[in-house]
Amino acid sequence: MSVRIGTRGSKLALAQTATVCRKLSLLGIDAEQVIMSTQGDTTTGVPLHEIGGQGVFVRALDDAILTGTIDCAVHSMKDIPAFRPSGLFTAAILKRDSPADYFACTGSPDTARVIGTSSTRRKAQLLRYNPEVIIRDLRGNVDTRIRKMASGEYDAIMLAEAGLTRLGISLQGVRFSPDTFVPAPNQGTIAVVSRADPSLMEELSILDHPQTRTDVAIERGVMEQLGGGCFTPLGIYCRDGHLIAEVLSLDGSRTERIETDIKSIEQAREQGRQLHARARDLIEDAYTKLGIKK
User: Per-domain residue ranges for the chain?
Assistant: First the structure.
């Protein structure tokens, strides 16, 4: 059986899909890449929250799975929204790579003043530690971001360390610990989403890493209760059942945070409900200031 795997056309998306194809090939399963464009790839001149958040990278591939154009799709799992269309299933979650953010810079990290990122979370976390920095929106693929930094538009840029590793890119800078600079939920994780076909799901499930699946499920359980998507600055990270989650104000001046050990998804959801109650005003303020309608 040949599996048709949908992917975005960026270098990172192709590298991630190549990893999945290589793993399937070692298991004797043929795979065919189908490159597709998404709204997130074609609309790069505005912040993500203005075009619908991280889900814009996923919708076209979801539709292609549901119509039968492709059998499955490979995603950075942090791009997958909390609530999913019926008929889709996360058939495999690969072993997690680094969940950390990487602060790439042209000079000393301590002297960087103009920093590029389109993430409200990264912006708030940077401002929390240094309110004097200037944050400017930066979108585009990894090469584009690096080129803009090299040209002098930014002193530093924020990237996911896992993406750099997958692309074999080494940059001057510093890795931020996920314990203190809490990453986006599911950051560093590759997921394979398929239609709910038992034989296809069984075939792809061979790639699944159980501990990673448990950790990212805990993160998503908290995320579902918090809501906010990429609109609210929030970080959620779980490693071997140890959960850290935080919600920040847009300017980084206030943080609500939890840190605890989790043994079940229901416990994760309860922690998410408690954090939501404490951070309700921060979440509502983010929607108001960004002009997002609930």
Answer: 1-94+189-208, 101-176, 209-294
CATH 3.40.50.300 fits domain 101-176: no
CB-neighbour burial class of residue 28 (10 A; exposed 0-12, middle 13-18, buried 19+): exposed
What is the helix (H) or strand (E) element at residue 173, kind and residue range? strand 173-176
CATH class for the domain made up of 209-294: alpha beta
For residue 280, is it left (φ>0), alpha (ψ between -120 and 50) or beta?
alpha
Q: Residues for the chain: how many in total?
A: 294
Show the tokens assigned to 37.
């464009």
Q: Would the pLDDT of 53 be above 50?
A: no
Q: Give the distance from CA 195 to its chain's centroid.
A: 21
Spatial neighbors of 265 by CB under 8 A, at least 6 apart, are 217, 218, 221
Q: Which of 79, 97, 101, 215 is catalytic?
A: 79
d(CA 195, CA 89): 6
Question: Listing from the earlier edge strand, what are the strands of the sheet with 255-261?
Answer: 234-239, 242-248, 255-261
Matching residue, tokens 């549901």: 66
pTM: 0.89
pLDDT tops 60 at residue 49: no
Q: Is 79 a catalytic residue?
A: yes
User: Position 5: which residue type?
Assistant: I
